[in-house]
Design a protein that fits this description.
single chain; six-stranded mixed sheet; 491 residues; mainly beta; 11% helix; rod-shaped; disordered N terminus; 33 strands
Length: 491
């Protein structure tokens, strides 16, 4: 064991006098105290229990442990007794930390809202606290962490990943039908401290905490027991209602504590026409303090306004991150579309789309401009042409205007003699089939643009059931008509 020194008042040796076996001279770990300093960790191991006093403040009982004399990870570890401390405060709506401070040899318990104020050396965490209301606190006990010797690992976990789920931990899912959702029981790790988490199921009456923006820079906190398929956060004092069939998000967080944890929902901040767009919404970047500092994101719930089933649920606990696929062609990322507001995407610029629409609408000047833009030539002429379409209608008056925009093939059924004109003609060929449903004669209106061979009326069989066919060719100015009459079945 080596030599040791006794004091007059102690029968125990100073561990600094207990030397260690060495292969060569070593002034760093030459005795047990130096080894203790380097291979053990600081912390409070017993006592230091909390209670809430009548003033809604926190009292900490006398506690025992070891602390370093400074923030250096290799400074001397000394045994300490920290006296009872009363009246520690954590303001409502904030996350607080209670820790033991060596305090120059006069150990104390104190509180802070800054996680950087303690270091697991001369200042060691004993509780993490969220103060919700006047007499409601969430405590997480950090004393057990202090029994682990791997101080560097503890410090890393405290300042990086606070909550990690075990491989047999919580799962998050929805019921087969309806708007109920659930989480199974499991556990998470707070640093190196294992925290049990209770199961949660809205179908069994479990309640959750609702968070949404209040319109003035803060958040509203409410209790909830069921989902409403239409509610979303539009940054007004109350939740808004999505339009029928639109999709909205809830982002679920678990709030671990020593009593089995709680569930909170942060409401999505938009409504979406398509499910795939709702799936792309990220959890809000600005969160209430409680969710930001204490919450573990567990997944999203997507509902559709007017639909009483959860349409999509995504668990973040067992998720291999993946890109949400596009099911709507118009939602494909990075593909140029133009005319977003009207939902028309043809992989054109907005100007190109406008010119093409001019072509469809018969705006020859606009369509010509479009063609020039595509071909880089000034010798372009575009004329809108008739498009194919089938149209059927009766003729029951003495005058009738054939609307050629209804289609290039039209079946008209005269039941009385009529004088016809034409409207909305575009350059092209049209076929008009007259199928008499009574004795009737159809003639062309004079001085209205009709042209026939020789200038006379087209021939026409007027008997009931007779079929007459006119072929119209329009050049933009003149309507040229040829007629074929009295179609009958070949026998």
């Amino acid at each position: 064991m080596g030599n040791y020194i006794r004091t007059a008042s102690s029968s125990s040796p100073f561990i600094s006098a207990v030397t260690l076996s060495q292969l060569s001279a070593d002034t760093v770990t030459s005795n047990l105290q130096e080894a203790y300093n380097r291979f053990w960790s600081a912390g409070i191991y017993s006592g230091a229990t909390y209670s809430i006093n009548d003033a809604s403040n926190i009292d900490i009982s006398e506690g025992y442990g070891v602390l370093r004399k400074s923030a250096s990870p290799f400074d001397e570890l000394v045994g300490v007794k920290v006296p009872e401390t009363t009246g520690l405060t954590v303001s409502p709506g904030t996350m607080g930390y209670i820790y033991a401070d060596y305090n120059g040899g006069n150990p104390i318990f104190t509180s802070t809202t800054n996680i950087q104020d303690f270091n697991c050396q001369d200042k060691c965490l004993i509780y993490t606290v969220f103060h919700n209301t006047a007499f409601e606190y969430d405590f997480i006990d950090g004393r057990a962490m202090n029994e682990d010797a791997n101080t560097k690992h503890r410090r890393k976990l405290l300042k990086t990943t606070l909550f990690e789920y075990g491989i047999d931990g919580v799962s998050f899912n929805k019921k087969t039908t309806g708007l109920d959702f659930y989480l199974t029981s499991g556990y998470t790790w707070y640093g190196l401290n294992r925290i049990a988490l209770n199961s949660f199921d809205t179908a069994l009456g479990d309640t959750f905490i609702k968070y949404y923006r209040n319109g003035v820079g803060g958040f509203t906190e409410e209790s909830g027991s069921t989902l409403n398929s239409v509610e979303y956060d539009d940054n007004s004092p109350t939740l808004a209602s999505a339009s029928t069939n639109n999709y909205v998000n809830r982002f679920a967080y678990q709030l671990p504590n020593d009593n089995g944890g709680r569930i909170a929902l942060m409401y999505g901040q938009n409504e979406y026409q398509y499910l795939v767009d709702a799936q792309r919404e990220s959890p809000p970047s600005t969160l209430p303090v409680r969710l930001n500092d204490m919450g573990k994101y567990v997944g999203r719930i997507v509902t559709q306004a007017g639909n009483n089933d959860i349409r999509f649920i995504e668990s973040n606990l067992d998720l291999d991150y993946w890109q949400v696929p596009d099911f709507e062609h118009n939602s494909l990322a990075s593909l140029q579309g133009g005319q977003v507001s009207s939902g028309q995407y043809f992989h054109l610029t907005e100007n190109e789309y406008t010119y093409l629409q001019n072509l469809v609408d018969g705006n020859v000047s606009g369509a010509t401009t479009f063609a020039k833009g595509l071909s880089s030539t000034t010798n372009v002429h575009i004329t809108k042409r008739a498009t194919f379409g089938v149209y059927t209608a009766p003729i029951g008056s003495s005058s009738y205007a054939i609307d050629l925009s209804n289609g290039s093939l039209q079946f008209l059924k005269p039941n009385t003699s009529s004088v016809v004109s034409f409207t909305n003609a575009l350059p092209g060929t049209y076929i008009i089939v007259f199928q008499n449903t009574a004795t009737a004669t159809v003639t062309c209106a004079t001085s209205s643009g009709w042209h026939t061979p020789g200038g006379g009326q087209p021939t026409y069989t007027n008997t009931n059931g007779a079929i007459n066919v006119w072929t119209l060719v329009y050049d933009g100015t003149q309507m040229l008509v040829t007629s074929t009459q009295n179609f009958t079945e070949i026998t």
